Amino acid sequence: MNSSINLQPVIMAGGSGTRLWPLSRAQFPKQFLSLLGQQSLFQQAALRLKGLGRDFLPSADPIVVGNEEHRFMLLEQLQAVSLQQSLLMLEPCGRNTAPAVTLAALHAQEQGLDPVLVVSPADQTVIDLTAFTAALRSAAEEAASGGIVILGIPPSGPETGFGYIRTEGSGPVMKVLRFVEKPNLQTAQRYLDEGHHFWNSGMFVMRASVWLQALGEFRADILEATRRAFEAGTRDNNMLRPNPDLFSAVPAESVDYAVIEQCPGTRFTVSMVPLAAGWSDLGAWDAVWQVADKNEDGNATFGDTLIADSHNVLIHASSRLVGAVGLEDIVIVETPDAVLVADRRRAQDVKKIVGKLQGSGRTEQHLHRQVHRPWGWYDSIDAGPRFQVKRIMVKPGESLSLQMHHHRAEHWIVVSGTAEVTNGDKVIVLTENQSTYIPLGERHRLANPGKVPLEIIEVQSGSYLGEDDIVRFEDHYGRQ
User: Fold this and answer.
1) CATH 2.30.40.10 for the 7-280 domain, yes or no
2) Tens of pLDDT along 202-247?
3) Longest dimension (CA), the chain
């Protein structure tokens, strides 16, 4: 490996993963889920790319491009794997992947460097890290000389959910002839029979300058609009934010459509390196079943499950026992507030349920029952006319905002840990089994001054119990 090549991993962490509902939600998308193993897909991607530094030197910590709404989850998950120094580029709204890569390339050039960008989605899994490293070694060497390289997946079947790459030649680096849209089943089978067709992994390798030159040639409007938003942005420690108004005006387009698919036959050469490393984009529950450990009947189970006389079934239980009898090719996914039952072969169609949820304005598409916040989480465990019960966890040293409610009063009971409670002009300390009452209209704050998590039960009562009935006076996290 050429030691003069500087690698800059870039993780695109703004996806939504609607086909993995009900586990994936708009405010807790699939990249933050631990679908296989203890670490989330995002954490796996960050560690996988950080690990390149052991073979490709020098290699920087990953740049993470994600949504402003997910910044606390991004920070928390990076901290858990000791990558809290990674730069977060926080988009005020999603504009697809071309502007996301452009932000990273502009930042790299601002630092006076021209690194080889290794661009990867945050929501994929790779089993064979040795093969992954070898493929990226070939891709990085090709990209260092000015080419654009995409990692292609040797197809294992006539998959209709992926775009395809048509190549020629053999060896570690192949010439790309053209890109093909997601085919129907008959066309996908023909691609498989013909050979020289690979799945598009969505992982790209190229110098920052090459990306900006190609984007300027094919989509100058995206380049200039993103540049304006970047240059008018703000920097806060390791968080960089493009200007919200200017970024919202950037045309939304993918890396593929904006640049990569335009390159064949131009001065921008596109090559492909095959990646045979147990890759999966986990785009639907059928893909999770395919890569999961299965028993002799082909059943994959997660959580508390009992299964009998069933074959090729996936069951994911989050909060209770799930039993299944006499099923074939079925997916069952259970969460505290929703259950999905689907034909495994039609797992792509889960997005139809998400569409119905969106159309009816239901919250099950947007949030889990347990909602993560920068200070901890809350779980809405019961509700009825004029009351709601929540279980609240506050991390050590953290606190909620100083706030007030117009329409509800609250009772707090400490279950474990120590609570520091601001209630009007009084500040009291409560320990296990102690409680307090927050009257309607009173300024209040809950904080955890201890070294262990604080858990309380909150009982709300009043005429309106929505989350938007909060007036914040002080907040450590910059929320309004």
Assistant:
1) no
2) 999 999 999 999 999 999 999 999 999 999 999 988 899 999 999 9
3) 76
